[in-house]
Amino acid sequence: MGFAPALDGYAATDTATGKGREFPELADKLPWRWIDSPPHEPRMPPHQYVDGYKLTRDELPMARMLESVIDHHPESYLAYFRGYQQYNRYLEIGDGWRYWRAFFGGRSFPHRQRLDASERPRRVDECARPIPPDVWGAKYPFWPQGSGYGEWKREGGKWNFHREDPPPPHPPEPQRPRGCCAVCGRSVMLKRNGELYAHNAPHPGLPPCPGRLPRAQISR
Ligand SMILES: [Zn+2]
Is residue 149 part of a domain? Predict the structure, then answer.
């Protein structure tokens, strides 16, 4: 199986056959399923995934090509979803879905959610930073901020929510002053004099910023 993303439009080229595949065609060929969560669970946003363990021989290259478009398309973007400490790469192609991939047990699972299924992920190029778990205040990073701690349990045919105590708070870590780079949009640490301090540490998956900036180009 070989493929290369073709960056015009939302397509990938199957290098074994030379055939171009449009992203919507790839998405249509995959067996999407809705997540199972407790009925009335208000916190996990509805979304679909493709089970990376159960792909057929025909589906496997479609999934890999779809993921390749997500990984390489210039309109894809890095963003933090809710309380996760690691960002994901997302792609929106105008079909009402937001696509990404996730890894479980070393297998890649394509994912997608309707654009209105939850608030939008916070983009790295819009100065987003991960929100520490105790500031997030929820048992799972995919729960909304401040939704607390506990578990859903099925008891006598009914789903009940069992509240738990929050973990003990951590002392806050000292934070260097930060600003937003006016060129690449990323959050940057500042020196005492207000200049960029650690902007050369690149985000994996983002091109390096075009260089150090004068103080005037940094917004706070
Ligand atoms: Zn920059």
Answer: no
